[in-house]
Amino acid sequence: MIAILIKKELLMMLRNKSFLLTALIMQLLLLTAAAGGYQVFRESTAERLAAEQQKRAQWLHQDPKHPHIAAHFGNFAYMPKTGLSLFDYGLDAFTGTVVYLEPHKQNEFSFKPAEEQSSSLRFGELSLAMILQLLFPLLIIFNGFTAFSKERTGGTIQLLYSQGLSFRQLYLGKFLACCIWIVLLLLPAFILLLLTQIWIGYTASGIIRVLLLGLFYLLYLFLVAAVTLLVSAYSKNAKPAILTMIGIWLGFMVLVPKWAASAGDNLYPLPTKYDFMQAIRQDIQMGIDGHNASGARASALKAQLLKKYQVDTVSKLPFNFEGYVMQAGEAYSSWVYDKHFSSLQQQLGRQNQIALWCSLIDPFVAIKNISMGLCGTDYYTHLDFQRQAENYRRFFVRYMNQDMEQHSRLGDWEYKISKEKYAEVPAFHYVSQTAGQSLKPYLLGFCSLGLWFLVTLVLVEIYNKQRS
Amino acid sequence: MKLHQIIFAGELKLLLRSRTQITALLLFIGLGAFSVYYGHSEIGKQQDRLRSVGDTLEKKKLQYLEAFKADTSTAAGKYAYEAAALPSLARFSYNFLASNPPAALAALSLGQRDLYPYYYILNAQNLYAQTLKGDINNPFKLSAGNFDLAFVFVYLLPLLIIALSFDVLSLEQDQGTLSLLQTSSFPLKKIIAQKIRFRCLLVLLLVLVLSAAAFLACGPGLQLAQSLGWLLVLFAYTGLWFSILYLIISFKMNTSLNAISSIGVWICLLIVVPALINLLVAGGQKQQSSRLAGLMRSRNMPEKEEAMRGALNHFYSYYPALKPADTAKTPFFYFQGYSAFLMTEQLKSKVLVDELYHAVKERNRKVSYFNLVSPAVHTQELLNALSGTDMDRELQFKQAIEKYHRQIFWFSNRALFANRMLTKADYAAEPRFEFKPPTLSAGTLFLGLFQLLGSGICLLLWAGKNFSVAFKEDQ
């Protein structure tokens, strides 16, 4: 019986010209978004690689100079565009693309692509993810809100019930028919995405991510279909059904995400860069500053080393005391930076936590976060990149300071390292997270999808019992 | 009783009885009130920040001035005096504030103010090493945008218009009262037009009341021209949306199809078209900035006499008057060499940065080509421009900073190249940041209004034609 129902629903769908036209427009939009996403990915990757190579060459071809001065020349870490960023741009426009790595300072990311665009960017960027998250649900809503009211006004619903069909079976038939056309419409987009990933030379992890994306988007869209059918069943006629669904769409997709971001910002305000840097500077000044060996901490360090090596002056130490102090200063400032950055990240985490909790009640926020996470365009991937870039900064600064400590004499600022030494510092390379690591912050999102399915199921059962 | 009086009275009664429409109106008013509060609290935070930074720098200045009286026979006194009087030290430690204070209407349309830093603390070090480094933001918040009054009007007002008007005609069909209306002595087209007019007046009144409340919250400093401009833009945008609804109604579809079509148009104008434009413009234009990353690098040069002389000779080719007749090394020789190096580096960097700003302007110009098909983005841009939160103001602020930085450079370097110490008189005459923000020109405003109203009138004519045809068919 259900198979017949599914067949009938699909047949009606095929006869519905406006549905076919909207579905075609949707496919064209998906194709446009995919082409645009690929172009943006290709251009920004080429530009990043060129910039990376240029900066690396500048580092390698520095004139021979004192190692600490060479460290001050600095390096850059460019945030790579992931292969899946062509599917979901995520926060890419609002996280900086590059960070300058230099001794004594941990800089913020610079050059947000959004800074180069007018406020039109706030209206959104056309991506495959945006179409699937925002527009595809509307196609489902517009096609499904009359599912039960039409049967009711046409009198066919009583005919179906009189043949022994329960509401549960009728609902299931309609739902499965919806699922079939959703899969059929989604399939080209995901095949295209998979092919693009293979074309750009993506790894097995990338393929797993594509498959997971496909799975989560299917679940999300099935959920939209389930809710639309339920609302249609509970509504007396088509008008309240469409108004309710549009209300839900507007609330979940426009108002809740915006409110969550604003509420987070109001409840947990961020410090300004000026205050933040002042606090760091103050904390560093309380200790040794890396350039001044006469500070209290430096004096303590000096006394400790003289005692340890049984000498009466730092010039008799088996290494350059200034280099040692320099690195100790670096370690101290790193500790201070860790303290302040960790508190800043906690505050950012608290802000974002509101949106994460909202994902429990809002499946759109849930899929948005999961999608960004899997595509590597979310805040947590950016944070991971920031951590790795900072580790690299500390590594190359330490490497240069250690050279100074081991190979130069006290007060010898004429000491120079050869160009070969620069090559010993490897270029920065970002190691991507695994799919599991990327999804970890969004566990609440999974619960959201599960919870909504459960609620829908319960309401279907209630309606079924009421009817029988 | 005239037709409009009869219809207005009837519609008011129906409106008061309709729970859905009353809820929609109340929800809109609530969201509008929240957005006014949100905008003012955001701008309030920025104003507090500007005041606090200004105060901190003022205190610092007083400390510098006090240092001229310091007892230089003590180590601490000598250190304080040298920090203030030695131009080689003051050039990198004495800071100046360049701020972009919010315009009177900024709280109503925050625009790009959350994205760009609204103040910089500068010294004579390379400008771009100070301004290109990123600020502290939450990318998630930036991506979600602001819940300001402009968002409520640009995004939610059309939805209110849809909620109030989409079933103006189809409801009569559904209730079976349409045939009754057709038998009345007034043409159906006129009756529908009056019903739409009633809703339009109601929405315009709402826009006026919410805007007036927001203006009042702005306090003094608000100019009449800006407020009038704000209202005119919103009236034109409201008019356009009622024209769209009037057109949809003129096709005489059923309630569900009307709702789908109206929401479909909303999705197209608020989401699909802007996103497509962003894709088209972004796809055709490369991101310029990653090439500029090198400008953030610390500037260092060999501390060799030869290198210093090279930098100074290059510098003197720009400023021949400063070239000393005597080639002997002065006590400030190495510091002068480094300042000369900084200045020439700055001139080189400026070329690259100007290219970036030119590309940004170009991109903006390209987006404006689509104003006619993207009224929502166009309205948002007009509101941002009236509120001084648009890209144009940001670019002009950056130009003003560049000019100010040159003055900051000469504040300490004038003394450095004159081989003298800084004095209290130098501090008294320190440069102050001057920024005359651009205002939206009357021409641009009228062109914008013309485009919004023009599109609306075309749609009304189309709807009128549809109604005439339908009316003849019914007869």
UniProtKB/TrEMBL annotation, chain A:
InterPro entries registered for this protein in UniProt: DUF3526 (IPR021913)
Keywords: Membrane, Transmembrane, Transmembrane helix
GO CC list: membrane
Protein's UniProt keywords contain Membrane: yes
Transmembrane feature ranges: 126-149, 170-200, 206-234, 241-260, 442-463
GO molecular function terms noted in the UniProt entry: ABC-type transporter activity
Keyword Transmembrane: yes
A Pfam family annotated for this UniProt entry: DUF3526
PANTHER family cross-referenced by the UniProt entry: ABC TRANSPORTER PERMEASE (PTHR43471), ABC TRANSPORTER PERMEASE PROTEIN NOSY-RELATED (PTHR43471:SF1)
The name this protein goes by in its record: ABC-2 type transport system permease protein
Automatic annotation (TrEMBL), chain B:
One Pfam family in the UniProt entry: DUF3526
TM ranges: 21-40, 149-169, 200-222, 228-251, 263-282, 440-462
Name of the featured protein: ABC-2 type transport system permease protein
InterPro entries tied to this protein: DUF3526
Keywords from the named record: Membrane, Transmembrane, Transmembrane helix
